[in-house]
Amino acid sequence: MDERLKKLEEQYKSVPIPKNLDSLVEASLKQRPKRRAPKWILGAVAATALFTAGLNINPTMAKNLVGVPIIGDVVSVLTFVSYEVEEDTYTANIDVPKISGKSEEIAALNEKYAAEGKELFEKFKEDVDWMNENEGGHLGVDSGYIVATDTDQILSIGRYVVEMVGSSSTVMKYDTIDKQKEIVITLPSLFKDDAYVEKISSYIAGQMREEMKATNQDKMYWVSDAGLEDESLVELFTTIKSNQNFYITEQGKLVIVFDKYEVAPGYMGVVEFEIPTDILQDSLVSNEYIRQ
Amino acid sequence: MSNSRAEQNLVTFIRSNKERFYYLAYSYTKNEQDALDVVQDSIQKALQSLHTLQNEDQMKSWFYKIVVRTAIDFLRKHKRQHLMEDDKLMLLTPQQFDSYENTDLEVALDSLPTVYREVVILRYFEDLKIEDVARVLDTNISTIKSRLYKALKLLKVQLQEEEGF
């Protein structure tokens, strides 16, 4: 038996090593990630860091960066508080945004942001204590925000939390504000009745199937009739929630957002679908926010 | 800082074992380019998630786990294309015989279902302890033991048959 295993091993290792293995390994080693976070988050973090630094230091720079006038502009967003911890095996980076504005709705949002940021930090500290009392380990949390849209009329900001314990999980929550009226725009408030749920859901399901087909399943969603090997293994997407996560683009298009794992395997990350205004038109209250 | 020390150890580990990673990746992908992709992705993932490695003694099994998962993910994502390529090859090329001397042996290992092949590779060719094999494959020790037993039995049976027993 040992003889056979030896021969099998020789066979296993007789696969020729490609000439470029060395250079490929060296190249991969050089591309060191600076932060332990998914790539798209890296971009977002860099952008917000620049944005807030610029905003705090130099109004002109901020204006150039985000393309909005700062002076005389009532509603804007900046970092209210940052929690930072950098120890050997524990890192936390929590930026809590604050939206400037006088309305009660904006004050309520800011309160929610501050409370959630604090809670996240408290929980992180508890987890660190627990880890220290036990075997020790690695913990990371990275939270902050991105400005998805900032026009004269609307502000959409997305707050993310990336928790890294073993694998990483990503949660993204958007809020959209009418800057003129200083009110929060909810998904149901855009529509006359709840027919939009069905319209958007069936559009997204169709889109998922198409994308899976077009990319030969490189893109993958949990959706029926799209060639998934075993549909019973996953919870298939059937409908969005009536208050599904969303934002509005600069062009006035509705974008529906799903968290990592919500409708697709982890490698797809946070998933977004832009909904054509055509299919929503009959249901919209007006074209004030969502435009053709 | 201990973080950068861990990173240096990881880099050294990767440099000195890259061929082993390649063999392991190749045992899943059966294709040079894909195996290279898996190795590259695995290194990236390892550097990115080094903080999840709790104990440096477990670096080997931790890294192999990344390679195995990356390879399996890769196969899942590219299954269709591969099937097509294989089908095409079958149609377009006449049956070829390998020039390896021990074709029967290679066929024997290759013809094992993945769950059996991987335990043999990890346990005997990569010299991992049973408990480390279990960690790499995310399952428990008794499952690994029974798979190994079955794998060896299968290999033996096949070899014997081919040797004319």
In short:
The complex is a heterodimer of chains A (292) and B (165). Chain A is built from seven helices and nine strands.
> Percent helix among the residues of chain B?
over 70%
The number of E-state strands of chain A comes to: 9
Count of all domains of chain A:
2
State the strand order across the main sheet of chain A. Answer: 1-2-3-4-5-6
Helices and strands of chain A, in order, run as HHHHEEHEEEEHEEEH
The oligomeric status of these chains comes to: heterodimer
CATH arch. level architecture of the largest domain in chain B: Orthogonal Bundle
Helix content class of chain A: 25-40%
Instruction: Note the overall shape of chain A.
Output: globular
| Strand portion of chain A | 15-25%
Helix-strand pattern of chain B = HHHHHHH
Biggest pleated-sheet summary of chain A: 6 strands, mixed
Q: Quick one: CATH class of the largest domain in chain B?
A: Mainly Alpha
Q: Shape of chain B from CA axes?
A: globular
Classify the fold: give the CATH topology of the largest domain in chain A. Heat Shock Protein 90
Low-confidence stretches of chain B: 87-102
- Rounded to the nearest angstrom, the distance between the terminal CA atoms of chain B is 61 Å
